[in-house]
Write a structure and sequence with these properties.
This protein has about 250 residues and is α+β, with helices and mostly antiparallel strands. The chain has 5 helices and 9 strands; from the N terminus they run E-H-E-E-H-E-E-H-E-E-E-H-H-E. Strands 1, 2, 3, 4, 5, 6, 7, 8 and 9 form a 9-stranded mixed beta sheet that branches. It is globular. The relative contact order is 0.19.
């Protein structure tokens, strides 16, 4: 069966996350319904990862199979006209039948946006935490993330996961830019709510709410997420998903 991969982006404000749910508007649900309308067969999408309710994506990927080959430029154009304005299909490529959007990804990169002052025009895409944290303390916490750790203390466990170990390739802070600070983390995998837990923990320590040693202890303890304020979802973006070679090279 021919296999295709979609590269897409979306404003997560109006979605209950990526994963299809009954009686809820989701990215996967909208895409599968639109593809079914155009291709005239049931479509199952497999995403590179799941974003939570309200989380945005600039570079999400998902693959699907069809029984009859489709012309990808035709499908891209027709699909975009059928989809709502908060969901953008960037391109569609044919890939080998062994390609998998989730398992073939080398790494994912998330960006979290923190406002330095209230801004009604950025309120849906960045978080103003009120008391601005000590950025030197935040930077020291980011330095601790690099390498492989058990992120049980920074995630909500799901039954299908065999373990909670993730390798952090990069973790850093940039800005300010237009009164906004950006925290970026690149890892081989992310667990449920992991990025929001990391940012929420860093801000809590930077604000003096938590002891500086608390963050390091969380990385060393095999305990489930608890006693932590998650950073709100609207400041989080799935920024980039990387594959071994560009997706187009897999054709």
């Amino acid at each position: 069966m021919p296999r295709y991969v979609i590269q897409l982006g979306y404003d997560g404000t109006g979605f209950f996350g990526w994963q299809k749910q009954p009686d809820a508007r989701t990215v996967q649900g909208e895409l599968e319904q639109a593809l079914k309308t155009l291709i005239q067969e049931d479509i199952q999408l497999y995403g590179s990862g799941r974003t939570d309710t309200g989380v945005h994506a600039e570079d999400q990927h998902a693959h699907f199979d069809v029984h009859i080959p489709v012309e990808r430029n035709w499908l891209t154009g027709r699909l975009q006209r059928l989809l709502p304005d908060d969901l953008l299909v960037r391109r569609i490529d044919e890939v080998p039948e062994h390609f998998h959007a989730r398992f073939d990804a080398r790494w994912r990169q998330y960006r979290y946006q923190i406002l330095l002052r209230p801004d009604p025009f950025k309120r849906l895409y960045a978080w103003y935490p009120g008391h601005i944290p000590d950025w030197d303390v935040v930077d020291r916490g980011l330095d601790l993330l690099r390498g492989e750790h058990d992120f049980s203390g920074f995630s909500k466990r799901t039954a299908e996961l065999p373990h909670c170990r993730c390798h952090i390739h990069e973790a850093g802070r940039s800005g300010p830019e237009d009164h906004c600070i950006f925290i970026r983390v690149r890892a081989n995998r992310f667990l449920r709510s992991m990025m929001r837990a990391i940012v929420g923990g860093l801000v809590s320590v930077g604000q003096g709410v938590k002891d500086p040693d608390w963050f390091q202890k969380k990385l060393q303890e095999d305990t489930e997420l608890g006693n932590m304020e998650l950073a709100p979802p609207h400041g989080l973006f799935l920024e980039k998903v990387s594959y071994p070679g560009s997706v187009s090279d897999l054709t």
